[in-house]
Specification:
- It is a single chain.
- The chain contains nine helices and no strands.
- Helix 3 crosses helix 4 and helix 8 packs across helix 9.
- It has about 110 residues and is mainly α.
Length: about 110
Amino acid sequence: MDAPIPGTTLFDGDQARKGYALNKMCFSFNEEANRRAFLADEEAYMRRFGLNEQQAAAIRARNVLQLIEAGGNAYYLAKFAGIFKLDMQDIGAQQTGMTKEAFQAMLNAAALQ
């Protein structure tokens, strides 16, 4: 097994089990009615899916890194971020501590190499 990348949470079987409720909730956001229900009462919606306090706190904070640490999978978290009109570049910027514009510039520079 390769050495872990510092600062990176590996999404493995343990993380998948840990994040099952969180990821199931985020998957539910594929349906408009569920997105509306979440926005109408976030706390009730989180209880409906059985989120633990770590997961609920990360949802309240809108903090992607905390969501990943709580077992969130980036693909499912994108469904959550979409409710707030955030895209994967917004998420990448948050993960790297950069502004979205700086993150996009970094991606564009890498594409030119």
